[in-house]
Specification:
Poly_Biosynth_Transport, cell membrane, transmembrane, membrane
Length: 160
C-alpha cells in the first residue's frame, strides 16, 4: 500500500514539474509560433473529455463493482469490448477528419507565419495524436476499474 502511494505521488509530482521545466526550453528551441501549435493540440486534447460523455466513468464503476463475480464481470467485459469498438471507430473518424481537413485548418483557421507545409504536417500529426489519446482515455477506464493505478501512473509518466 505504501509503495503504491509513493509511486502515485511521485508520478503526480513528476507529471507536474516536468512540463514546467520544459516549457521555457521548448519555447526557446521552437519559438512562440511553433509552441502555439503544441498549445493548440493541448486545447483539443482537453475537449476530448466531452466526447467521452461519461462512458469511461460508467465502466470504471461497473468493472470495480463486478470484478469479483466472474459471470457479471464477463458480461461487463463484453459490453466494454463493444463500446471499445465504438470508441475505436470514433478515434479513426477523428483522425481522418483532421487529416483530410488539415489543409483547411492550417490555411484558414490558424493565423501563423509558419510555412503552410509545416503547419499542415503538424495538424496531421495532431490528428493522429488526438485519435490515439481518445482511445487511451477509454482503455484507461478498464485499468482504473481493476485498480491498476500504478500502471496508469507509469504510462502517464512515459507520455509526459
Amino acid at each position: 500500500m505504501k509503495k503504491k502511494m509513493l509511486i502515485l505521488y511521485c508520478s503526480q509530482i513528476y507529471r507536474t514539474i516536468l512540463p514546467l521545466l520544459f516549457i521555457p526550453l521548448t519555447i526557446a528551441i521552437l519559438g512562440p509560433e511553433q509552441y502555439g501549435l503544441i498549445s493548440f493540440m493541448t486545447m483539443l486534447l482537453s475537449f476530448l473529455a466531452l466526447l467521452d460523455a461519461g462512458v469511461s466513468g460508467t465502466f470504471i464503476r461497473m468493472i470495480s463493482i463486478h470484478r469479483n463475480n466472474i459471470l457479471e464481470f464477463c458480461s461487463v467485459i463484453k459490453l466494454y469490448n463493444r463500446a471499445l469498438g465504438v470508441f475505436l471507430f470514433i478515434s479513426i473518424l477523428l483522425f481522418l477528419f483532421i487529416y483530410n481537413f488539415s489543409d483547411v485548418i492550417s490555411s484558414q483557421w490558424l493565423n501563423t507565419s509558419i510555412d503552410y507545409e509545416t503547419t499542415k504536417n503538424a495538424i496531421e500529426i495532431i490528428g493522429f495524436v488526438l485519435g490515439v489519446y481518445y482511445l487511451k482515455l477509454y482503455i484507461c477506464s478498464f485499468f482504473y476499474g481493476v485498480e491498476k493505478q500504478v500502471v496508469i501512473s507509469v504510462w502517464g509518466c512515459i507520455y509526459t
